[in-house]
Amino acid sequence: MAEITRDQVAHLARLAHIRMSEQELDTLSGELGLILDSISQVQEVAGEDVVPTSHPIPLTNVFREDEPRDTLTQEQALDQAPDSEDGQFKVPAILDGE
Amino acid sequence: MSSNDVMDFGQAMEQFDPVLGFEVHVELNTRSKIFSSAPNAFGDEPNTNVTALDLGLPGTLPVVNKEVVEYAIRLGVALNAQVAESCRFARKNYFYPDTPKNFQTSQYDEPIVFDGHLDVELEDGEVFRIEIERAHLEDDAGKLTHQGGSGRIQGASASLVDYNRAGVPLIEIVTRPIVGAGDRAPELARAYVTAIRDIVKAIDISDAKMEQGNVRCDANVSLMPKGSDTFGTRTETKNVNSTRAVQHAVQHEIQRQAALLAAGGTVTQETRHWHEDTRTTTSGRPKSDADDYRYFPEPDLVPVVVDREWVERVRAELPELPAVRRKRLKAEWGFSDEEFRDVVNAGVDGEIAATVEAGATPAAARKWWMGEIARLANAREVEVSALGVEPAHVVQVEELIAAKTINDKIAKQVLGHVADGEGTPKQIVEARSLAVVSDDGALTEAVDAAIADNPDVVEKIKGGKMQAIGALIGPVMKATRGQADAGRVREIVMERLGVG
What we know:
heterodimer; A: mainly alpha; Histone, subunit A; two-stranded antiparallel ribbon; B: alpha+beta; Arc Repressor Mutant, subunit A; 3 domains; ten-stranded mixed beta sheet; three-stranded antiparallel beta sheet; 18 strands; elongated; Aspartyl/glutamyl-tRNA(Asn/Gln) amidotransferase subunit C (chain A); ATP-binding (chain A); ligase (chain A)
């Protein structure tokens, strides 16, 4: 089984600003390892003739013309915001990332 | 010692060789955003130029704006670079309120532009070649305003977010390490950023207004002891927002790092913030695991394939680049090296070109833009381009002088009135009755009045004292409020008195 350590999970949680209990760290390190194992099986199937891809459909150059349209109104944009002020989203100050 | 102490620049240059690197972010001036159809515009009401995608709402999918790819190709060609035959986008993962998707859509291992170079000319004509490592496409973040405290993030209690800028197309231009600039490093920094700004403006992919953040520079600086070729630890000074500030920031970082190293200290690899008021940098955050961006290929976008025909079409249509244009104009105008350099350094080459195009001679255009107009701009503490004097105005002034309607002295006054917004030179000359009086009827009348008022002077002149004519010209000039052609007045006086 692929090894995902507790420290790696804690690190990822910190990067994602997700608070995790000791119990969750233990559980997730096991579960994430299992997911990695499952995905690794795909690599066994793929032979030399299969090139790595980031997209399942062999498409390129799906473009949009440079035409502005379909914007939300300010009211619509802020509709689901937990807090807003002066037409802007209001969020708690985050100190670790400037 | 404090990590903000500085060593004298000359002394620092005796001991160390600076190594520079630049990341310049250029906001592209497409009509819509890079992955959504929201307008790409500056200065609108907050959160009005947004779609669900720009807010990172679930279920939204990006689609690449074709014009953005076209612009990247144009930049690639302008920077003598390779344009990738195939490239893709990648997610740069981080959590911060300015990026509601929780990732920036950027390019990582497959930038659209790579391996270019730019020859940068310093003010005295020395040329440095800057190697361009890559230029990649990405989306801009929203704009945060911190509330409470000092307005900066320290001490803020909450932040307001406007996502109008989120998704504005950016191209980030990254240089290879620049070695060998020596004591010219600060000047070279300024010249490089100026050259990039001028190029993106000339090829019309950006409005290139640094004060609006269209062009933003992060400057990397490190020092090597003289004789060493091992790079030292570098700092990255963020968001230096004018070409002059780039020069000062690089010089300050050199002096600060030199003081640290000479005292036996070490440079911390970190982000530093530039402060224009004190011309110093302060420590931002150290490089840390927060920079673990876990890039991976963007699964919601398909690769971009640029066939060679596309590149060649863009190359064929590329507008004239600033360096080529300058060379051509210098030859066309016949200016000396020094005259031309002064014009370029004063930033009025565009105005002179437009003025020549509108019909003035290069010499006349240079005379006005480098002379009275520059003086007016300086006195009013504005850029020449913001003074309100247009190339067409200069042409009109020249026409008025050529027609002997006004002289040089009055022309200067007229330009001042143009800058005051009083209208075109012709309108001003008309409205303020500034035309030189060359109407012989009006002049003769004034001369006759002067003769009648000054019988003693007339006697002297008739007795052969020709220099006394001046005493009659004076009253005529006064009567015509200085607008008479003095030479013509003299001729009329002599005619009327039958002398000479």
